[in-house]
Amino acid sequence: MLTEEQLNHIVAHPDDVSHQVVAMAKELLAYRAAFAQPYAVIEPLGMTYIGDENAAMVWHPKHGDDDDTRLYLKPLIDE
Q: What does pTM read for this prediction?
């Protein structure tokens, strides 16, 4: 697995590699940043409400428990 330092080096030196490699490095950095911390959590009971399209019990991650489902935001990636 490439380290953050290696990915940042690739992005900082785009002339050393192909544009596809630079794009992949940027994408990996974006996903790693997005998935580093959850955006919100849903309690286990709240998961049952998602299926029937009712309100779920969604909380800030600091209020989450170990059995909660973590939600992450999809990163915006430049094409």
A: 0.68
